[in-house]
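Final report, Chapter 2: Outcomes

The project's central promise was a pipeline that accepts a single protein chain and returns its three-dimensional structure in a standardized token representation, suitable for archiving and comparison. That pipeline is now operational. To close this chapter, we reproduce one record exactly as it appears in the project archive, with the input sequence first and the structure output second.
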Amino acid sequence: MHHFATATGMRQATATLLSGLRTDRAGTLAAFVPHWYRPGADPALIDGTVRHLLHATPLIDRLVTDQAAYDPRPRLPRIRVPVHFLHGELDTEVPLSIPRECAALIPGAALTVVEGAGHMSQQDQPDHFNAALRAALHSTENGHAPGPVSGRTGHGEPTPGSFPS
């Protein structure tokens, strides 16, 4: 999202990442990918993601290049379809402030925070992610606008407006 284009030091970080991908793709990905998961995530899951990314070589470079200049904020208020962000609580790759800001700019958008999940919440906490996804799809299916929600799904009691796990 837009923090790659606007946050201090992100353009240089992106250039450094691209350089690393060109000179030592496997080593760069092996060092970079673990940050996408919660602390203590299964190493096999991380290794599988690295292998998958190694097979998607040209797409990853393009993604990194494109995200360095991407800022959707000016267009977000014009979106007129249901939007529901699902975002990992422990995501260090895209800070939680980013989907909160984007959801606030889209009329009727919602956000659910997936507790205990990192950037790859669908893999990191699949049961919690799937519960949140089912709830978001259900609200859209029934014609209910999701409304501005910053709920949680995961361990413990849900916050008001959130989706229980």
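Archive annotation: The chain has eight helices and three strands.
This record, like all others produced under the grant, will remain available to the consortium after the project formally closes.
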